[in-house]
Each structure stands twice: as structure tokens, then as C-alpha cells.
Amino acid sequence: MRRIALPAAILALCGGALLTVVAQNAPQADAAAAASAAASAPEPVVCFESRQGATEITQRELKPGWPNVKCSPVTGAALWYGDPYDGTVPMAKMPQMEDIPEGQAVVRPRTEKLALLAQCGVACHNGKYPVGFPKDNKPTPIPTMEAMYPDAKNFQHGRGRIWCLDCHHNTQRNKLSDHFGQPISFDEPQLLCGKCHGDKLRDWRDGIHGKRIGEFASNGKKRWFVCTECHNAHNVQDGERNRGFVQVQPESPPQLPRGMKDTSWEKTHPIPQH
User: Fold this and answer.
1) What is the pLDDT of residues 62-108, one digit of tens each?
2) Which of 71, 114, 134, 202 could staple 139 via S-S, CB 3.0–4.6 A?
3) What total number of domains does the chain contain?
4) Could you please report the per-residue DSSP string of 84-143?
5) 217 and 114 co-located in one domain
């Protein structure tokens, strides 16, 4: 019996030690496997909607084989939407738009994407004028501001006729300002831009200016794109080009349907002309 007991005891001790080592290595193995899986996972596809650097959207599946957005491999822009209302909220009430039913006009909020917005409102501009704040529209350059907003250093909006506090609230830096000094949310820039650009606001309201996606019916639900999703308010002239929108590489022409040699059929009017 002693001959059997001694090897059995040694075997039990070795087995216990082995199980302890395995148990200790299991979390490390799981972590290594998770890291390997993360490294092999494809990079998320992100495309911009109207202006690069403004609103961006990450591609994901709403259901198998149905993405929320298709991104252009040429320009990186959004081409079409599986759900045009994804991530939207009802647009705030607008003057002369009171007849639009609740929830039929929606927007994608941008406030949560503006990383410096909350910090600016409480860290430096906490409801009062900071020491040394300028009294006119020729403020002294501040290196910190220039680093955070490089386009503000070469500010082009208004060609020298306006300055920061014509648009930003004088004490609430996370708000814009109307003509009466009342705060405006960054998610409603049309209320600000309309102060000077009344004709563009009218055209935007009537659907002539700007961009909308959603239902084709005139009274259907639509996502409205607001001013700053297309326009950079600090650099409207696009730097040295001084010509507005930044140019992007055009998309490739669409493929003709199979069996169609050219587009001559587009020259034929569907209604006979007399």
C-alpha cells in the first residue's frame, strides 16, 4: 500500500500545482485572445455627411446586410442612408414653421460632439467676463484660443466687420446669441445665421437652400441639415481660395444598366412637344 500511496501523493501534488498554474494563466490567455480578436477586427468605417469635420457617421448594421449608411470609397462622404432618421431629435420650433407637425422635422444634434463646448462654458468663461477681456472688436490674440481654433486666427466671416461676440453669447460660451442677447443652442444655428442672412434662412425654410433627406412627399418626415453642418462659420471663404466650399473629388459616373450603350434616351422628352 505504501508503494502505491507515495506515487499517488506525488501525482496529486503535481496535478494540483498544474491546475493552479493553469488557473493563473487562464485570465492572461483570455486577455490575449481578446486583444488578438480586437487587433484582427476591421477598422470602423466613418464617413462625413455634408462637410468633413462637421457631422460624421459610423457605419453599422441596422439588421444583417442592411447598413445605416453607405460611405463613398472615393470621397469618404455618405452616399445613402439605410435609416435617414438614425440619431435624430425633433427640431426646435422655428418662426413661420409652426404648421409643421410635431416630429416631422428632425435634426441630428451636434452639441454632444463638440468636445470643447462644455469646457469653454465653465473652465474659462464661467458666466462672467475674464480679466483683460477686450472692449471692442479687435481682440488681442490668445495663444490658447489659436491652438484650439486655428481657423479663428485667420477669421474670414464678415471680412473684418464682425467679431466673436456678434455670434457667441457674451457670458455663456456654450451658447450662441440672438439680436436681443438671448442664448441660442449650438443645435439651432439657423436662428443665429438668420440674423444677417435672412434671404438664405427663407430659402432654407422653403427647401430651396440646404439639404434634406427622408420622405419625398412634401408633408413627409425629413431630416433637416442645419447651417453649420455645411458651412464653417469661422472660415466661410475656405482660406486662400476665397471661394467658399472646399472642393472634393467627384464620384465616378453611375454604371449604365445592362444592354444600354449610351444615355441618348435622356434627350427624349416624355411628353410630346408641339
Assistant:
1) 999 899 999 998 888 999 999 999 889 999 888 888 888 888 999 99
2) 134
3) 2
4) TTTT-EEPPP-TT-TTSPTTSEEE---GGG-TTHHHIIIII-BSSPPTT--SSS-PPP-H
5) yes
